[in-house]
Write a structure and sequence with these properties.
With 273 residues, the chain is α/β, with parallel strands linked by helices. The chain has three domains: 4-84 and 172-180, 3-Layer(aba) Sandwich (D-Maltodextrin-Binding Protein, domain 2); 87-163, 3-Layer(aba) Sandwich (D-Maltodextrin-Binding Protein, domain 2); 192-266, Alpha-Beta Plaits. The protein has nine helices and 15 strands.
Length: 273
């Protein structure tokens, strides 16, 4: 039973919002500032599960998190898509022209870059967490500095929202995954995250993709990462959905034979249905 969940960020962060929505407030959240700390807490049994952002519809994949899940032998047991609305906030009594610096997580800054093109006087500063900046502004009463964070963070840390939904693309979704130490097969499984490596033969990747197609798997994501200890060798991370588990099992048995290395990173319920 999941009682403690590790998250990157503090109360009011987007990971915190996902934890509340996914687990329906039935768990204790353990906040950390980095994903390395999140994974370490899970590996050391301080947490029963962890929540990790994996990709964003504007900024793309958070590549290091794929490696963290893989290297630490963790399993994806669920996923959650959050509509991420970024808001510019600061202490009350100020407007945008009073702001000299905006501090936030690098992904948030990237997703809002176009908005700040119209305010060249504002310096963008990378920080560890969206909500942590909001809390710091409140606690230290920082004037002239703003944060990019959720409406929940503005409410919790009593900040004024200077501009709402400042992300470049208004429909901005982030995919979060639920990660555990062991595979959980309790839910209806119709999606899987896989990792495989192939030799350098011509058409080897195409052959693997054909197997997925022939076995009625729908490829929803493919990402390559370099194998650090072998120069110019790459591992492929893919997500597939399927209607029947038997189709997936058939594909998995064939791909295991075809690949130099094959690994299941997680089997879980597709949240996009």
């Amino acid at each position: 039973m999941i009682k403690k969940v590790a998250i990157q960020g503090i109360q009011g962060s987007f990971h915190d919002i996902v934890s509340q929505n996914y687990f329906l407030n039935a768990v204790e959240t353990l906040p950390f500032l980095t994903f390395n700390e999140v994974v370490r807490s899970l590996a050391q049994h301080k947490a029963d599960a962890a929540i990790m952002a994996l990709e964003n519809s504007i900024a793309g994949s958070i590549i290091p998190n794929y490696a963290l899940i893989d290297v630490n032998e963790l399993y994806i047991t669920g996923e959650y898509y959050l509509d991420v609305q970024h808001n510019l906030m600061a202490l009350s009594g100020q407007n945008i022209m009073d702001i000299n610096e905006v501090h936030s997580h690098p992904m948030a800054l990237l997703q809002c870059k176009v908005f700040f093109d119209q305010y060249p006087h504002i310096k963008l500063v990378e920080d560890s967490d969206t909500a942590e900046v909001a809390r710091r502004i409140h606690d230290q009463q920082l004037v002239g500095i703003a944060a990019i964070a959720s409406e929940a963070a503005a409410e919790i840390y009593q900040l004024k929202i200077l501009a709402k939904s400042i992300q470049t693309i208004k429909q901005n979704e982030t995919r979060f995954v639920i990660v555990e130490r062991h595979q959980n097969s309790s839910a209806k499984i119709n999606k899987a995250s896989l990792k495989f490596m192939l030799d350098h033969k011509r058409g080897s990747l195409a052959a693997m993709l054909n197997v997925m197609s022939d076995c009625k798997l729908n490829l929803t994501k493919i990402q390559s990462l370099p194998k650090i200890d072998t120069p110019w060798k790459y591992a492929f991370f893919v997500d597939v959905t399927f209607d029947t588990y038997e189709d997936y099992e058939k594909a998995k048995s064939i791909m295991t034979i075809m690949a130099e290395e094959f690994k299941v990173l997680g089997e879980y319920k597709n949240a996009k249905q």
